[in-house]
Design a protein that fits this description.
Elements lengths: L1 E3 L13 E3 L8 H23 L6 H25 L6
Antiparallel strand pairs: 1-2
Helix pairs in contact: 1-2
Length: about 90
């Protein structure tokens, strides 16, 4: 997210200047990884229950599966960062 910076002297008020958002404390990648794995498992359960319905909402199932796939990709990226490469 970008924040509008205060105007400096002589700057045109109609031209906003953008700055980075205030820095937030960094999350521990292991905690984020655990949270994502839990969310991935929960989505798997929800998808299974919805697909067992007699008339499942296909749009909702599609969105949940897409979210689950995005989470799986984020898990893979975090694992590659947190697990060091072993050079043989």
């Amino acid at each position: 997210m970008l924040w509008l910076a205060p105007l400096s002297q002589g700057q045109n008020p109609r031209e906003p200047t953008m700055t980075d958002a205030p820095s937030e404390p960094e999350k521990d990648p292991r905690e984020e990884l655990a949270r994502l794995k839990l969310e991935h498992r929960d989505l798997d359960d929800v998808i299974l229950r919805l697909s067992e319905d007699t008339a499942p909402n296909q749009l909702q199932l599609q969105r949940l599966k897409k979210r689950k796939l995005l989470i799986k990709d984020r898990i893979a990226r975090l694992e590659s960062v947190t697990i060091p490469d072993i050079i043989a």
